[in-house]
Design goal:
This protein is mostly beta strands. It has one helix and nine strands, in the order βββββαββββ. It has a single domain, classed as Roll (Ubiquitin-like (UB roll)). The strands form three sheets. The protein has a five-stranded mixed β-sheet with strand order 4-3-9-6-7, covered by helices on one side. It has a two-stranded antiparallel sheet with strand order 1-2. A two-stranded antiparallel ribbon has the order 5-8.
Length: 91
C-alpha cells in the first residue's frame, strides 16, 4: 500500500480500475492511477512548470500541496487540482 499526495493510503490491489477521474482547473480528466506532475499538466493542456504552479486541493484548513513535474502522483477518484501563475504582477 502506498500513500497518495493527500497522505491517504492508496490500495494497489488489482481489483481497482486502472483509470480515475480527477479535476484540473475545473475540468474533468480520465487518467491512469499512477502518473506524474508532468502527466497531469499534459492531460490538462497546461504549459510546462516554467509559468504555472500546480496544486492538489486539500479539504478544510490543510495547506494545498504543490505538485512538481517530476513528482510521482497516486491518483484517487475525485481528486481536485488547480494551477496558478508562478509570478503575479502587482497592478
Amino acid at each position: 500500500m502506498n500513500l497518495g499526495l493527500g497522505g491517504r493510503p492508496v490500495d494497489d490491489s488489482h481489483a481497482q480500475s486502472s483509470e480515475v477521474t480527477v479535476q484540473v482547473d475545473g475540468r474533468a480528466f480520465r487518467l491512469p492511477r499512477k502518473t506524474t506532475g508532468a502527466g497531469l499538466r499534459l492531460a490538462a493542456g497546461l504549459e510546462s512548470g516554467e509559468d504555472r504552479d500546480l496544486y492538489l486541493e486539500r479539504a478544510g484548513l490543510a495547506e494545498d500541496k504543490s505538485v512538481a513535474d517530476a513528482d510521482q502522483v497516486d491518483l484517487d477518484d475525485g481528486m481536485v487540482f488547480f494551477s496558478t501563475p508562478r509570478t503575479i504582477l502587482q497592478g
